[in-house]
Amino acid sequence: MAWTARNIPDQSGRTAVVTGANSGIGYVTARELARRGARVVLACRSEERGARARERLVRELPEAEERTELRRLDLGDLASVSGFVKELPEGRLDLLVNNAGVMALPFRRTADGFESQFGVNHLGHFALTGLLLERLLAAPAPRVVTVSSGLHVLANIDIADLNSEGAYRRWIAYARSKTANLLFTRELAHRMADTPLVAAAAHPGYASTNLQTEGVRMEGRKAAERVVRAGNRMVAQSAEGGALPTLYAATAPEVAPDSFTGPRILAWRGGPAPAWRAPWTRSDAAAERLWAASEQLTGVRYGASA
């Protein structure tokens, strides 16, 4: 029988942070964790959109009003990441879901000068996880789940050009950032081997979210945006379906460190199952090099225990 959100174990007493919780997979993840009793922090770049999302969540799940809160987090700005962590009141964190992301954008730079897809999808979450690590390790069974993509197979990282200073191809840059998510998960799992922390990754397959339309909308390509929206309606699974691999990786007791979970049917849709990953995402040498570069770029060092 396929695993569904009804199989999520009781989350009472656990605190979770979900990035990008204002829409799509992040919203569903936050809602279902709250449904099962978790206290959930919705970490969103836009306070306005985040507030609307929380209002919607409470309408759908009135009992979650007392255990959900909104906090602003812009993963494209390391000062915002640091500020988010400093203002977070919890002394202990049980679950961090690194969900937020951008996809196939025209070339942009983050507030700190990084190429936007690498900066938001990888470096922002690298910094956030590092700054929250002490709180995670204070929990009895902590997890970090990072949302990658099946499209990571399009490209390995280029350690000599992490910020795409050479030729910029939006889909290759996206794929590299998603490969970086998997290499980060692998190295974090290795570094946490002597702790209870489980670092795992997931991907949603093809799920209908705002992610697909963001790039073409930014460029004002209205015809392309209509085509993408039509494709979402006809072929993509729902955000509810796309969130299942993340929810499984975040809550199922049997999830192993450095595991990668995706949809069962052709890596596209269906219940959670082990996902295929490109061989380069299993390279310990590449994971170590990316980790060292990420520490240098962000200024966040995980300390002796990491």
From TrEMBL:
Gene3D superfamilies: NAD(P)-binding Rossmann-like Domain. The keyword Oxidoreductase applies. Pfam families: adh_short. Keywords: Oxidoreductase. The keyword Oxidoreductase applies. It comes from the Bacteria. InterPro entries: NAD(P)-bd_dom_sf, SDR_fam. It comes from Streptomyces axinellae. Belongs to the short-chain dehydrogenases/reductases (SDR) family. CDD domains: retinol-DH_like_SDR_c_like (cd05327). This is Oxidoreductase.
